[in-house]
Design goal:
The chain is mostly helical and 64 residues long. Helix content is 77%, strand content 0%. Helix 1 (2-10) runs antiparallel to helix 2.
Length: 64
């Protein structure tokens, strides 16, 4: 976002476009991978029946 604002302030349209497009792609990437992270943790919780990570050694054997 900062590069986009810098491009707008300096009058460089290419820099502004690339900066804002990069910011939008970063936000979308973050949203997708955070949802995948929570889906993965939910899958582990469903497969093991445990919600707490205390004493979580051996989950690879329980998930199979």
């Amino acid at each position: 976002m900062g590069l986009g604002v810098l491009g707008v302030c300096s009058g460089n349209a290419l820099m502004a476009t690339m900066g804002f497009c990069g910011g939008i792609l970063h936000v979308l990437n973050h949203a997708v991978f955070k949802s995948l992270l929570f889906m993965g943790s939910g899958a582990v919780q469903r497969a093991t029946g445990h919600f707490s990570l205390i004493g979580s050694e051996g989950y690879s054997n329980e998930c199979r």
